[in-house]
């Protein structure tokens, strides 16, 4: 069942009824000011940091789930009837409802009692403010006398404190109302540098800034007493809960339409003013006034909207494809690319499932996210890499997480997730393949953010490999540490503090648990390093890294091989995990994907066998589950993985992040049909048709889909902020379509379904536009490549002479060789 449809022309998902299975979110802003917005206008905004600079208050795990946001009420004076054109929070049955979630814009429209209303929300480029453009039209043949109430509840900036420290925060809230603007000033006393403003293009008839005056102590947002009465009370908040409510009059002749613009903005006094105003302790309101003047004009709003569209046009136009499959087209050209940009901006901080006050940036998460956005924002990717690398430790290990504001590693979470450093190699190589910017390797980057410890980025990569080589276990496989990619597979014995939500101690002083996954990943990373060294002309390192891979490979294929598939690990007692000899958790997806991607077992049939086992034991109609059978009880020596009931999260769900590893592996074996079949099973656009089962947004990937052992199989959770976005983009574009950046040029080597006759693509690569035309001329995957009509002998297109704007590439797939 569907709750809307894709409008690919306008790049929007159009939700046609408000009662979706869950709140369906979108994001506003793409620079420093951000917001989340649900399809019924719930959500919140923040400046740079979802925890420390939050503008709008939002309560997680609430009932209803999504309440609090950017709400406008309309009230008909003649009857006293009031409603929200966004359905929430009043939830009056509307005559029509649509929410168009677009790229950086959300437009919610409805009609009720002969009045149509539409609210467009977006953040203009270059600005720290959001626009709500309300258009109201009188469809009646009599005049309409309406009142609008636009409202926000202010967060007292630090979202964590805001949600917990009431003995303090009921006393600190301060506002000021001056010349049609509500200023939210809390915190100005001690920090003197930031404030929010809320204003409107129409004159305020009245306002409220104290929540209790607007709602009434015992009312909710669904029935504010001021709206019921038709009048705000011009309340000024002294402590308690500051809000911004702007009441305006809308008297409309039959057929008349009016537009009112609301602005919510963030403003900082510059440092010198902060200093000067210390004595006065004032916020500099005059700084906000020019912006208010500008963005309350319809023409300015329209051109800001167009600028935003151009920004996204430019990003997306770097890679556009036409395949025979509309789902693939839609995901690659629009939604998957968009989700990759959102994970770039948000990492794992703020979503419907991440509160914005939890973890900072993940080392492993952010390095992988880069695969999906590096072609769109290469300069920003470069900076991101340098920031991440600076949190690496001198040992070559890495902090698992770091704070985006301070850019320092997080001691509380620690550093011994032993796969982490290897992701930096894959990520830096992806960046250089995309850009050719080998100079990045010479950038001096500190270790553990310590001044004086700076070394070239290349050395960071070398130390990452060294870190693994220095930490191997009894079978010669890499030690797993706290965990590898699977954060919840905690095989070592770490003493847990009393009061921790799950226990990871076995009471044995364990240090020997090993990871087959990291073994495979080391082979992959060492191959990358060898290729990189070759590109740099460094023969010594080529040999060294080839040897690292060659040494680990036989260890993986002996101790890491179970007979039908790759084992997952060895626990701290030396017993295999992910083996037919185990009672539960006999097979895991991760080592099958990682080892085959690393090229292990391609020649001796192990890869083929492993993928057959994946199909037999793990694949379901909703995607491929992470392990099977799921653990039915808690095991101290396995840790958090077994804290989840079978079929959920790391214990047997379709952990979508890993599915593209199997898609890529299938292409390595030449199985285009199988790869694309797996692609479609978790593809949001395909699953749109079963939205009532899938439940999260049909336009973006979720982290997990409940697995075959779960009572709610097929139900997705934790949408938006997941490494799934980047990896699926890589699987479909670089492996199934085969359009893959390499150090020496763009390579085109598709492994797509036999039934596909033709694919075209336009790809900007190192400032040159590649017009690619792929045609199937026969079965199989062998290619013949023509550049500007001339046949070339490899699938890698040589870099054209400087100044070349466009290169035409013809690829014939299935050519008899
Ligand atoms: C996982 C969670 C887990 C957490 C613990 C996350 O990355 O997705 O399942 O609870 O890490 O560290
Ligand atoms: O690999 C991790 C990732 O870093 C965060 N989310 C969960 C994944 C699997 O545990």
Key features?
single chain, 817 residues, alpha+beta, Beta-galactosidase, Chain A, domain 5, Maltose phosphorylase, domain 3, 10-stranded antiparallel β-sheet, 6-stranded antiparallel β-sheet, 22 helices, 29% helix, 25% strand, binds beta-D-glucopyranose, binds 5-hydroxymethyl-3,4-dihydroxypiperidine, Glyco_hydrolase_94_b-supersand, Glycosyl transferase, glycosyltransferase activity
Descriptive report:
One of its GO terms (molecular function) is carbohydrate binding. This is Glycosyl transferase. InterPro entries: 6-hairpin_glycosidase_sf, 6hp_glycosidase-like_sf, Gal_mutarotase_sf_dom, GH65_N, GH94_catalytic, GH94_Enzymes, Glyco_hydrolase_94_b-supersand. Keywords: Glycosyltransferase, Transferase. Residues 11-285 form the Glycosyl hydrolase 94 supersandwich domain. Helix 11 (378-389) runs antiparallel to helix 12 (420-435). By secondary structure, this protein is of the alpha+beta class. Among the domains are: 4-300, Beta-galactosidase, Chain A, domain 5, CATH 2.70.98; 739-813, Maltose phosphorylase, domain 3 (Sandwich). The chain has a ten-stranded antiparallel beta sheet, covered by helices on one side. Strands 6, 7, 8, 13, 17 and 18 form a six-stranded antiparallel beta sheet that branches. It is globular and about 80 Å long. Residues 495-509 have low confidence and may be disordered. It binds beta-D-glucopyranose and 5-hydroxymethyl-3,4-dihydroxypiperidine (IFM). Residues 362, 364-365, 485-488, 650 line the site of 5-hydroxymethyl-3,4-dihydroxypiperidine (IFM). 5-hydroxymethyl-3,4-dihydroxypiperidine (IFM) binds next to helix 10.
